Amino acid sequence: MIKTHNNHVKKSYFSEAVGSTIVKCSLISATILLASGCSSLGVQPWERDLLAKEEMALTSSPIDAALDDHIYFSKEASSGGKGFGGGGCGCN
Amino acid sequence: MQLNKKKMPINMKAALTIATSALLGTVPTAVNAADEVSNSAKAQQESTWDFDTAFLYYSESDRVSAAEAIIAATKTFENDEVLNLKLTIDALTGASANGATAQPNVQTFTRPSGKGSYQTQANETPLDDTFKDTRVQLNAQWTQPLAENYTGSAGVHISKEYDYLSLGVNGNLAYDFNQKNSTVSLGLSYFQDTFEPEGGIPVAFASMPTAFGDNDAENSNAKADFNTTRRIDSDDKTTADIMIGFTQVINRRMLTQFNYSYSKVDGYLNDPFKILSVVDNKGIAQDYRYENRPDSRVKQSLFAQTKYHFDENIIDVSYRYMWDDWKIDSHTIDSRLRIPLSSNSYIEPHLRFYQQTAADFYQPFLAQENSIPEFASADYRIGEMSAYTVGLKYGMKMSDGNDLSFRLEYYRQDPKDSGHIAPGALAEVDLYESVDAVLFQVSYSF
């Protein structure tokens, strides 16, 4: 019983490890592809009408982002990614 | 009457501008209380402080509630230097899972201070209801162009709770190229946190002692017993982060960002309020022991975000993959769709999905027949879990140009069994209780 159980755990860790490697590899290659192809991407300065909008900023509501970061930092095992996920409170 | 009402935000802005400037030791304009209106106008003309404020209420059913207020002031100076100051105050009350398992009988736990105890009814997840804290946080961030295409930024952070102090610094350098369509950035941050929990830091894996009362001679022995389970010092934690970012404008409507983060945390990483039940082979708790986690953790993450402007709507989708040396992996997908309702109002539905695997030392309980492991924690937040958030924001631009918005969200966590066999009575109780929370936020920018 216990042995089967252990096997099950090992198996799932194994597939997770493979899964995460695939995710890492694809994300890294996507980044490299984008970085190498980036010189052909983009807009002329006079084409920035939409991008210049406040709501098109990558963090369009910094206050919402700060509040969300605080909630998820204290309720989950992950933090940061978009910004720094460092210390700051005794909530985790 | 109506005139006064309309004037109020401007006066508030003027007052805050003066207050902020006074704090910084720079006076933007002569203050004369009798000449309020002209000062308001002057303050607006001569200084461009913008204020963002928000109030958030977060409430879990039967557990923690938190109220958080933020006021942020931003000023852009002549040469595009930007100063951002932020004050955050939050208050936390309510009950938090202490890590022990539910049992078929009533359980009694000693409060973290040792003064008194609390009880958990049969078949209920034990919650420590002594959770209460107020926190004040100050952030200051200075951003400025350093040279052609280079932008630098530096900031400080201080956060103080009754039993916790956090000090932080950060720096960031960004380089724009390809007609500012591409940006690479490098950021560093360092935090130093000090922890002095109520009742002292428990000795790792010490058995939870019995409670003692106040000033009772009879209790001096109980107090001495309690003290043997506590360390006499405070402890600290350092967090060093490195982040490499790449932002790319794809076309007139689309923009993307990629970040890689590396974070190293060292020091006291236990939660001093968390315990584990030690159960016999019938699943009945015989003892409760304080948890023990490794004293270092290395986290890494990859983050990708894209924003796309349709004719009217704007979609914002991001994905984060995080992994660490505690063997926690997590996936987060966050998406928002901003839909204009008119030229000055919008709604924004929000969906977030989160999933994490358990830390390798996570276990929902300790079996009495096994020896105590090197590390163990029953904190569900480092166990296997999935969570989602569904929310809606409504925002409007007011006639005076200020922004007002409301946000209502529902957050649900579903902890999961990562393959621990529950003996006897534990098979009959809910070891992985879900948590529901609602958050409501009002924001006002002026």
Helix content of chain A: 40-55%
Q: Mind telling me which CATH architecture of the largest domain in chain B this is?
A: Beta Barrel
Ends distance of chain A: 36 Å
SS-derived structural category of chain B: mainly beta
* Strand runs of chain A, count: 0
Count of alpha and pi helical runs of chain B: 3
What order do the strands of the largest sheet of chain B run in, or round the barrel if closed? 1-2-3-6-7-8-9-10-11-14-15-16-17-19-20-21
The total number of structural domains of chain B is 2
Model regions low in confidence, pLDDT < 50 over at least 5 residues of chain A: 1-14
The CATH topology of the largest domain in chain B is given as Porin
Largest interface: A-B, 60 and 100 residues
Radius of gyration computed on alpha carbons of chain B: 26 Å
Low-confidence stretches of chain B: 1-7, 29-46
Give the overall pLDDT of chain B as a whole number.
89
Number of strands of chain B: 21
Tags for this entry?
heterodimer, A: 92 residues, B: mainly beta, Porin, 3 helices, 10% helix, globular, disordered N terminus
Structure description:
The complex is a heterodimer of chains A (92) and B (446). With 92 residues, chain A is mainly alpha-helical. Chain A has a domain of 59 residues. Helices cover 54% and strands 0% of the residues of chain A. With 446 residues, chain B is mostly beta strands. Chain B has two domains: 47 residues, no CATH class; 385 residues, Porin (Beta Barrel), CATH 2.40.160. In chain B, a hairpin with a 2-residue loop joins strand 6 and strand 7. In chain B, helix 1 crosses helix 2. The interface between A and B is large, with 60 and 100 residues.
Provide the fold topology.
The complex is a heterodimer of chains A (92) and B (446).
Chain A: H1 2-37, H2 62-75
Chain B: H1 2-24, H2 36-46, E1 49-60, E2 65-76, E3 82-97, E4 107-110, E5 117-120, E6 127-147, E7 150-161, E8 164-177, E9 182-195, H3 220-228, E10 235-251, E11 254-267, E12 275-279, E13 285-290, E14 296-309, E15 314-324, E16 329-342, E17 345-356, E18 366-367, E19 385-397, E20 403-415, E21 435-445
